[in-house]
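Re: [help] complex structure
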Amino acid sequence: MTAIDRPMLDRELKKGSAELIILSIVESRARHGYEISRLIETRSGGQLKFHVASLYPLLYRLEERGWLQGRWVEKAGERRRRFYRLTAEGRRVLASQRDTWKSFVTAMKLITGVDHA
Amino acid sequence: MPDWREHLRTRLAPLRLTPTREAEIVDELSQHLDDRYEQLRAEATGEAEATQLALDELCGHDTLAAEMRALRQARTPAAVVQGAPRRRPLPDVVQDLRYASRMLWKQPGFTLAAVLTLALGIGANTAVFSLVNATLFQRLPVKDSERVAYVFRGTSGVFSYPQYATLRDHAGSFEGLAAWGGITASLHAGDSAELVPGLIVTGNFFEVLGLSAARGRLLSAVDDVTPGAHPVAVIGYDYWQARFGGRLDVIGRDVRLNGHVFTIVGIAPAGFRGPQLGSATTRLYVPMMMQAIMRPPRARYSGDQNPDLLRNVSNSWLFGVARLKAGATADRLRTELEPVLAEFYRTQMPPAPGVKAPRVTVLPVDDPNAGPRPQLRVVAAILGGVVAAILLIACANIANLLLSRAAGRRRELALRLALGASRGRLLQQLLTESLLLSLLGGLAGVALAWLLLEAFAAVPLPAGAPALLDDVAIDQGVLLFALGLSTLTGIACGVLPALAASRPLMVPALKTTGSAGGDSGRRFDIKKAFVVAEVALSLLLLIAAGLFVRSLRMAEAVDPGVDVDRLVSAPLGVNLLRYTRAQGQQFYEQIVERAEQLPGVESATVARVALLGGSSRIFSIHVEGRAASHGRDASEGGRAVSGSATLVNANVVGPRFFETVGIPLQTGRRFDSSDTAAAAPAVILNATAARIHFASASPIGRRISLNGPDGPWREIVGVVRDSKYGSLTEQDVPVAYLALAQNHETGMTLYVRTSVPPASLAAALRREIQTLEPNLPVPEIKTMSESIATSLFMARLGTSLVSGFGVLALLLAVVGVYGVLSFSVARRTREMGIRLALGAASRQVFLLVVRDGMFLVGLGVLVGLGGGLLAAWALRALLYGISPTDLPAFGGAVATLCGIGLLACVVPARRAIRVNPVTTLRQE
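Output below.
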């Protein structure tokens, strides 16, 4: 498993940070599920890891909300893959979630003094 | 590389995704696991360990499903039965429809019977109730009709103009009180004259009704100022369309009304056909101030008498209509008006001692009693009852057809259940079938309703009958009701029993070899109850039809007391021309003379009241030397009085009247040349009048007055045999005949007695009348038999309708009896086979079936007889010449029903004895 406590990660997911993470990952371009999971792992320095069982349901949920759009893409000599890209709506949500998150982090820093620890 | 698909599928299974979606997810996730596996292998992990690590991504068995469950795509309804094809609602409906059509197509007998039954029930009801709604429940199309009320003298009487004017000026609860009188005007536009029904109305008439003109202007207060100075007219919308083609240049155009020039100033609003529903459509409205020209007094009027009814206190001819003030009630208005009218009587026309001034009735126009004439309502109520009974019979029939069919399909349904169909799925399919059937029946019903309405509209109405059938369209509410009822019946009897039958014991149902499941153990069978009800209802209708037919036969067999076969009549509306007395006398003398000179004419005469024309003139009668118990009264136009000791029907007749029409003299003498204007007034009574007033004593030489207790007195010079005066079905009608020479009147009808076929004389007569008086509108020349046919028109129409529907009901009931018996025979084929195999004679089996059927018929007849007696009692007022328990009517109905019922039993019974025991038993 990972360095982060699983129950705590679940709570974080519920709080919506997982959504923010995924939206950020596909912001620059469309990516498929495995790529997303790899990027989360590498960019967090191995601190965060999404399993298949939680990643895909999340992707489908974001798709149902209209924030992501998934599309099967076939390339010659390869199996088809499903790519997810950010929709206009998703881009707006991402911006707003970033703001919220920034304020939240700032507030957390002010209160807990985590920075100075 | 390991195959992840199975791992994924088992984890996704609880979600019941659509197959397509599930395949996609499996594809995507196994791709991910492949990538992961390859990566692990690239990192030199062992095969087994790499597989395990990849599978760990799924976090145990249930996590994936748990995470997915919140998604919309995971929310598909539960599949019903394992192995059953997945539900796809829309394709299912299409499939059901196709299956249902195929089932109906494969059972043409059943389908035809059901659709026809539905069509008859729905069609007959829709047509009749559309008609009833349109005629009886229509509202007068006036503004705020809840505030508009008719005002009558007494219960339904009319006012004189001075009475009206007094009431108008002395009450406060209305915004306005208007009055109108009926007129028939000779309208001359272009080169042809015609008689048009119209109204002469007060200036506030249209304002009180709250109407505005379709074109031009309506009559108003400015047209109501000076007698004789307002020659303007408004024409009805329908007449404008029909006679003037809806042309706008009609407004401002001059026409001749009764020979005087009038200007048409406007068109009444579309849809307004007059202030009273159910009366003839009004074509013309003229101002009250033009009364002397447009509505000369009819009774005793001749040009040298005062034609001014606007000052005549006692000649009543005006109907009143008021618009109440907001918040005022009809009752308050009545209590205001009554003292005013009483005061008018006290000061202007004191009644005889002990006689009270009449009361006033205020009847809101929306009141059911204010609508079309009561007898029309009776006809409508009867027709409504008849078709409602037909709808019930039709529903019972449908119920039986479907119940039998449902029982027959038990095996099919049980089989489908056993093969994994859900009950919901079966329900959907049965519903589809039932609705499809109702839809077909409904469509056929609409077509039938339309045809019936067209047929009603095409019935030639006798002249002067109100145009009731204008604008009658299929009433959507009624259609929906009839359709809804039969659909409900279809669902209740087609779907529920089938489902119930499929529920409990699939195995026995599957075991039954025949197509019919057995409920033969039950004694009570709802289907039989339905048949009994059907038979009872149709017997009731047959009895009613029988009574009407018998009653009509009796009326047709009545001797009118005149020579029907040899008489021709022609109304001479010269009062419209305002002849002077001398001109009028001369005209009548000349026309009689000219008519008598025509070849084939034996004699000719004139009479004031047309024979059998349905109207009357009524006077109070006083016998000289007897105390007066009543005042002076006179009225015209209503039904003849019968059996009255104070009132008598009168007729003014020309020379040779009794010889011409064929009424024999009993005692005394006929009018002759000695009865001149200068001679003592003479009167001839009919036998009934003589009996009422003089019992067995001879009335010859006695004197009576028709003008009140103070005379003038008229000597009775003769008594003639009774003849029918107003209608064929009247009885006990006293009549007094006066001589035209002593009582000059206008508005006479010419009667000609012929020795050739009467109809052949019409053209010649018309020519003579036109030659003598070209300004007279072309009269309607009728033979006496035509007049009688007209007087029996409503009775004929009603009788044919009720009889037609009675036959229909009989047919439906027969189909019901036949259907149930056939079904029962089919169900008992095996029993019959065994009986025959064990030695039962064909006759016994035959009788067994017939007895079963006739038992139901008999039961229905008993119930129906009870209902028939009640119906006959309710209809007794409409019957003529027979008692409500008329044996031929009842006997005929019962015999017809039993006979046809027996026929319906014989067919299935013959089928029962043709059962081949060997074949039947081998099927087991």
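The longest strand of chain A covers residues 68-73.
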